[in-house]
Amino acid sequence: MKRRITIAAATLLLSVVAPVMAQDAPAAPAAPTRQSDAERAEQDAKVDRFCLRETGTLIRRRAPKTGARDGRCTSMQTGRVYTQDDLRSTGQVDIASALRMLDPSVR
User: Where do the record's region annotations for Disordered lie (predicted)?
Assistant: First the structure.
């Protein structure tokens, strides 16, 4: 009997408290900023697409003693980098087709 009363009281309490917890004020959406084509071209010119700086590894790299200050690529890894915007701009549905459009050497 005591157990039923305890369960009923807990159910009643949760049914009263749950709607109150759900009434958070929504955060104001941030205004989307769009880059102009000139800004994007300038940014792309600054980025060396063949220099891989972030590889997804958890191993920290020591800062190189040369080349780091003058903007040269000091990474030993080479490859090609495609951003999410690059992939979306192709209009393809899957990644394989998008990569083939961006780089014909991808098979």
Answer: 24-44
